[in-house]
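User: I'm putting together notes for a lab meeting next week and I want to include a structural view of one of the chains we've been expressing. I don't have a solved structure, so I'd like a prediction I can at least talk through. The sequence is below, exactly as it appears in our construct file.
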Amino acid sequence: MASRNENIPAIVYYDAYVADCDDGVEFKGENNVLVSMKRIMTFNALKTKIQRKMDLNRGQTITAIIYRYPVSTRSRMFNY
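Assistant: Thanks for the context. Below is the predicted structure for the 80-residue chain, given as C-alpha cells.
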C-alpha cells in the first residue's frame, strides 16, 4: 500500500480541451506541465501548486480542473 506522504506525478494540460476518441476520452492540447502532488492535499493547495508550476501572473487564474483517475481492474490493467 502506498504511503500517505508519497507524491503522485500528474500531467496538467492548459488551454486545452477534452475530446471523445476511439479509445475513450482524451485531453487534447499543446501546453502541458508535469506536477508532483501529495496524495492528500486540499483543492486550493492543488490549484496553488499548478498556478506556480505554470508561472501564472497575478491576474491569471485557473477556472476549472478536470481530471481522470485510474482504476485498477482484475487483470491488473488500468481504466480511466
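A couple of points you could mention at the meeting. The mean pLDDT is 79. The chain is about 15% helix and 40% strand.

User: Perfect, that's what I needed.
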